[in-house]
Design goal:
The chain is an alpha+beta fold. It contains three helices and six strands. It has a six-stranded mixed beta sheet with strand order 2-1-6-5-4-3. Strand 1 and strand 2 form a beta hairpin. Helix 1 runs antiparallel to helix 2 and helix 2 packs across helix 3. It starts with a helix and ends with a strand.
């Protein structure tokens, strides 16, 4: 597994992390000034992103993300993911693209939801 694949796996785990663990886990994979956007939101910084993730976890209890594929070059990567429900069944899927900070962490993330 590549370092970038592991980075995306660790980032995906942040979405379903315990509240007390979320910001430290997120800080390990994303720059402090991270920008995140998807069709429903646009947030900046670890605290705002962690709060958005907490809202997701509350709206979808027991759900988690699985990273299915990662493509990378230069300072950018793209991850294809599946949202799994509490029983491990696919609930949705999408792709996320990111620019990486010079230290390798994610710094600018954009998520796209694929049609069902």
């Amino acid at each position: 597994m590549s370092d970038t694949q592991q980075l995306w796996n660790d980032y995906a785990a942040c979405w379903s992390a315990e509240p007390a663990d979320r910001i430290p886990a997120l800080g390990a994979v994303a720059a402090h000034e991270v920008a995140y956007r998807d069709p429903g939101t646009e947030v900046t910084g670890l605290t705002e992103l962690a709060a958005y993730m907490a809202g997701f976890a509350a709206a979808f209890p027991g759900h988690r993300f699985r990273i299915d594929e990662v493509l990378e070059h230069h300072d950018r990567s793209l991850a294809r993911w599946t949202q799994l429900d509490a029983h491990g069944s696919a609930a949705s899927s999408g792709i996320s693209a990111a620019r990486h900070h010079e230290d390798g962490r994610l710094t600018d993330i954009t998520g796209f939801f694929l049609p069902a």
